[in-house]
């Protein structure tokens, strides 16, 4: 037995893969104050007395970073560079704001310390570290719980940095950049190391507690779409900051591939946020992303997140405009229709419009009167009727999510019309067709286990470890690759090794990651540059900046197959759809059948609801996926 667990902001999702290939799913309300309790409860419910393997998507690191609830962290660097974190790149995120708010530093200036040492650009040691005992005393007086060490040019030669790290071993959590992100660019490398030190102790304590109470083999989903051992996640927590969304990308790719779709846009709408991604055969990756304005330089799936989920709160701003999110009602108190909150949310709008009556397969009843009272306040402030206010909330939420999809498609050089939209998460199917219509997308896929697809993706994720080495100006690339490969084989025995590199035209500021071509490294780079920027200049000199090795151990993927029953009598429900109220059929997914059925209609599942608008038709395929196609398009 294997269990996938995705701890979300509103619900914690569980999917159980039994030995005979059966998949079982369920959800429990999340407990932000004690997420481990909910996870242990769900594992006990699923496993009984057996001892399954558990793959867990954790939000501990993400939440600690976003909410600034990490530990007191010191930053140790080369003397003279103590202000590195504060200076940053001096990029202006708000170009026309003359008084931008100051950056909130994880390691404030009084906790930034310098070490007298120097490693030169070519990796040679000009001077070794000095006065480390005095630094040790200063750290003790500062009462820090974590220390991040990042010395100048340590990506070329880590000897000085390792000497400092060994000397500073103490009663704190310690992170060295040569272990976390041994790559070119001091600020990004320092930022990544400090983030790891800031959230690491919390992740370490959380996983230790979870392991001691469950006595199970637990692996952690990491941001690059692979699974990481618990012991490694405790040391490199920064690799888990997109843990849950990465599971969704793998789940979407796996489910879509079962129906023959390999070019997809993933659309994961949960209770708090929406995550979007692009898969063109393989998920798109990036080696640098920003979380709350802070760069993180480790391999990650290219995922864009917006604060638009089922729990996103609607309001009318001072200018009289309707806004939705990014604030969320979360799990507590939740949307008004849950019976505990009173803020109008996207979920409340769906309840008012008749699209939702219950959740979790009917086990959770929603309070329509309470939802209507909340949405009505928005209507009064904006001069709209109840139905118009609810529909307006959905249109604004859709616009936010359409913009996010354009970021990962149009802004990356891809036409969204060439892809199918995979809708999942608890709310994805409610919005997918309307968003697809605005983007010109003709096909939407609603997987069978859409409500828990991120958890399913964790069961489908391979075991992966990434290794890198900065090498600007270096000539012997094969030697560096051999060193990285030796480390990879020691950590993951029997793994398949994949080589890649970050390249750029000489004089450029940023690189493109491409597969490594030993004889002609520049060939794949020119093609990638043409695709990303619309031009390539093969006559220009190309520089190799970072070498990368990925170790992968494939796992057996869950099988997808439709579970059909004989069509029963189809009830009808009064729903606001297509700009008017109408009585439309309501199908259960298992009774939908593989016959093509026109919209408007609702298709209900345990963890999700799919809206089939007018002008669309839908059918269930052999993999259990609901395929929706706009009329006038050939589709599948």
Short structural summary:
The protein is of the alpha+beta class and 636 residues long. Among the domains are: 71-199, no CATH class; 312-398, no CATH class; 463-553, Dna Ligase, domain 1 (2-Layer Sandwich), CATH 3.30.1490. The longest helix has 29 residues, at 186-214.
* Overall SS class: alpha+beta
Instruction: Provide the gyration radius in Å.
Output: 25 Å
Which term fits the overall shape?
Answer: globular
Give a short account of the largest sheet.
9 strands, mixed
In terms of DSSP E residues, the strand content is 25-35%
Low-confidence stretches: none
Secondary structure tally, helices: 16
| Proportion of residues in helical segments | 25-40%
Mean pLDDT: 90
Tally the beta strands.
Answer: 37
What is the CA-CA span between the terminal residues? 34 Å
Characterize the structure shown.
The chain is α+β, with helices and mostly antiparallel strands. Among the domains are: 71-199, no CATH class; 312-398, no CATH class; 463-553, Dna Ligase, domain 1, CATH 3.30.1490. Helix content is 30%, strand content 28%. The chain is built from 16 helices and 37 strands. The strands form ten sheets. Strands 13, 14, 15, 20, 25, 26, 33, 36 and 37 form a nine-stranded mixed sheet that branches. β11 (217-221) and β12 (227-229) form a beta hairpin. α10 crosses α11 (368-382). The longest helix is centred in the first third of the chain and has 29 residues, at 186-214. It is globular, with a radius of gyration of 25 Å. The two termini are 34 Å apart. The mean pLDDT is 90.
């Amino acid at each position: 037995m294997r269990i996938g667990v995705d701890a979300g902001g509103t619900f914690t999702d569980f999917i159980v893969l039994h030995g005979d290939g059966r998949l079982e799913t369920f959800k429990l309300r999340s407990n932000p104050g004690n997420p481990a309790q909910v996870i242990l409860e769900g594992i006990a419910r699923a496993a009984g007395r057996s001892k399954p393997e558990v793959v867990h998507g954790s939000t501990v690191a993400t939440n600690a970073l976003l909410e600034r609830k990490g530990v007191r962290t010191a930053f140790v660097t080369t003397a003279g560079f103590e202000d590195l974190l504060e200076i940053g790149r001096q990029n202006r995120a708000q170009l026309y704001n003359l008084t931008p708010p100051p950056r909130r530093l994880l390691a404030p200036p009084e906790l930034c310390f310098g070490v007298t040492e120097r490693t030169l650009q070519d990796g040679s040691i000009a001077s070794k570290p000095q006065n480390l005992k005095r630094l040790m005393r200063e750290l003790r007086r500062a009462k820090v719980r974590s220390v991040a060490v990042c010395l100048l040019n340590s990506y070329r030669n880590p000897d000085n940095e390792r000497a400092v790290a060994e000397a500073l071993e103490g009663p704190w959590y310690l992170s060295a950049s040569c272990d976390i992100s041994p790559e070119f660019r001091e600020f990004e490398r320092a930022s990544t190391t400090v983030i790891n030190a800031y959230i690491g102790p919390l992740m370490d304590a959380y996983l230790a507690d979870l392991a001691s109470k469950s006595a199970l083999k637990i692996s952690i989903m990491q941001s690059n779409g692979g699974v990481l051992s618990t012991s490694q996640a405790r040391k490199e927590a920064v690799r888990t900051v997109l843990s849950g969304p990465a599971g969704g990308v793998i789940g979407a790719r796996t489910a879509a591939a079962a129906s023959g779709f390999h070019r997809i846009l993933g659309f994961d709408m949960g209770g708090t946020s929406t995550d979007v991604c692009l898969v063109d055969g393989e998920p798109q990756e990036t080696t640098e992303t920003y979380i709350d304005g802070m760069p993180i330089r480790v391999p990650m799936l290219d995922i864009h997140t917006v604060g638009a989920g089922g729990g996103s709160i609607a309001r009318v701003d001072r200018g009289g405009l309707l806004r939705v999110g990014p604030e969320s009602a979360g799990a507590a108190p939740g949307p008004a229709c849950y019976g505990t909150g009173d803020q109008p949310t996207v979920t409340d709008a769906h309840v008012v419009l008749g699209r939702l009556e219950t959740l979790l397969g009917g086990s959770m009843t929603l309070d329509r009167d309470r939802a209507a009272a909340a949405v009505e306040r928005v209507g009064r402030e904006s001069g709209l009727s109840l139905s118009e206010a609810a529909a307006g909330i959905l249109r604004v939420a859709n616009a936010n999510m359409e913009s996010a999809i354009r970021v990962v498609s149009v802004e990356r050089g891809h036409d969204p019309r060439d892809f199918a939209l995979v809708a999942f998460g608890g709310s994805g199917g409610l919005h997918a067709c309307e968003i697809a219509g605005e983007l010109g997308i003709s096909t939407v896929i609603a997987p069978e286990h859409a409500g828990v697809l991120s958890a399913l993706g964790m069961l489908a994720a391979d075991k992966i470890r990434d290794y890198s080495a900065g090498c600007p100006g270096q000539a012997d690339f094969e030697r560096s690759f051999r060193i990285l490969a030796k480390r990879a084989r020691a950590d993951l025995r029997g793994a398949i090794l994949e080589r890649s590199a970050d390249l750029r035209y000489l004089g450029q500021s940023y690189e493109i990651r491409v597969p490594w071509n030993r004889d002609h490294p520049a060939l794949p780079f020119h093609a990638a540059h043409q695709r990303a920027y619309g031009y390539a200049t093969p006559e220009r000199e190309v520089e190799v900046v970072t070498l990368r090795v990925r170790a992968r151990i494939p796992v057996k993927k869950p099988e997808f197959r439709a579970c059909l029953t004989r069509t029963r009598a189809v009830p009808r429900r009064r729903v606001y759809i297509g700009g008017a109220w109408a009585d439309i059929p309501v199908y259960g997914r298992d009774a939908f059948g593989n016959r093509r059925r026109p919209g408007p209609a609702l298709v209900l599942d345990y963890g999700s609801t799919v809206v089939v608008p007018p002008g669309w038709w839908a059918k269930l395929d052999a993999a259990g996926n609901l395929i929706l196609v706009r009329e006038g398009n050939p589709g599948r």
